[in-house]
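Notebook, p. 212. Picked up where the previous page left off. The plan for this session was modest: take the two constructs that came back from the sequencing core last week, fold each one, and keep the raw output in the notebook itself so nobody has to go hunting through shared drives later. Recording the first one now, exactly as returned: residue sequence, then the structure token string.
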Amino acid sequence: MSLEEFKQFINELDSPYILKLTAVGLTTLCLVYLGKIWYSYGYFKRRGFNNPKPEFLFGNVRSVYKKKNLSEQYQEWTKTYGKIYGYFEGHMPVYVISDLDIVHEIFIKQSSNFAARKKMHLNPRDSGPTVDLLIATQSRWKRMRMVMNPTFSSSKLKELDPILVLCADRLIDVLNKESDNNEVNVSQYMKRFTMDSIWNCAFGIDINIQYKKENEYFYKCEDVFRSLADLNLVTYVADYFHEFRSMIVDL
């Protein structure tokens, strides 16, 4: 059939028939995609690994969000399913490994074969100009790590000892002043200690964040992490239907 004959055939079709044909096609695609999701939930069983029972479409994401932090959920699952198991973010399988021998094999002996990292939510493409070490994957992440490795040599880290000791002394001094035999929220002090260490070691700037509670830099950093934790509808779609992440990023 030539192109002209095909156009003529389409023009001769009635609008209701085209709508029915479109509806049948979309329904078929949806059923095939739902079947793919259902099949994906057998990923770990087919490979001989245990995993918590997933919810259809959601996987184990809602169980994770019910906990105060992800590490608590990992600890519970590790006690139940062992040192190697998996869970599902939507229908994307995620391995959790706490066996030290396997971790050593992955990160040390065969690190060249494991350059990829799991993408989080709506990370931009690796070719984008805004991609940094935290969100880069595959070859770009590996290249960034190779460039940064000399910075974390043992000799370079030893040079940071006096700075870290100074920050730790500040933390002890602040806790001694604030506690006064009363209970204190250690979390806030540890946040400031961490920020103080990073600013001094990485940027060479002493912003005195542990003594000055009203610190603009501290509040700005908290805003950044808070914005990363706020998940909107688009982020949920990217989690539950990870095949379409690249399409959503390009929008």
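Okay, moving on. Second construct, recorded in the same format:
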Amino acid sequence: MGKKVLPPQATVRRLSIYLRCLNLLDEEGVSVISSRELAERLDLNPAQVRKDLAYFGEFGKRGVGYSVLKLRDHIIQILGLQKTRLVGIIGAGGRLGHALALYKGFEKRNFKVVALFDKDPHVLNQVYGEAGPIHHISELPRLVKALGIEILILCVPAEAIPEVFEYVLLSGARAVLNFAPVKLSSTEEVTVHNVDLAMELESLSYHLGIRETGLPNEWP
């Protein structure tokens, strides 16, 4: 029996795009869609769509296409979204953490923010949204275990990361979405995804420059 191959992270990210598209198709009353039609809606190659889905099994019928509802349900299972994932936000007293704490879109995707953390005494016990008061970061290990939090979102400055990540490792949380301007590595216990907003803006600036001046014959 052949060894299973883990799909690339880019494929997993595209599953989320497929899921959103399938939800829209269901709202439009579309029951069946081909890989070509799905690819056209998402500006992708049909072969890429088929290759992505093939990592997880066979879902469509040749010459017919994919059942929108069945494929949507399969992707929900693959992404582990058949149950609500509980989330905590560290750095909830800052502007980004505050905004994420108040964001209403998480629950539509089966994520629920249930606890907020910070160490700034000026924001402790303040209540944002439905997640309750902001707790001191030292409460993280206890509350992660008590509430069953699986995912932590880090919205802290770079200098706070060493202390914060120690608490994360002690907490037993299994996944981290890191917005701090410091790259964190996954461990055997914790999967980390880093989001560097400055890097994304720099990439956009590069593409704007190409549009403005064209691709140079040679770089300086």
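Notes on construct two before I forget. The mean pLDDT is 92.
Flagging for discussion at group meeting.
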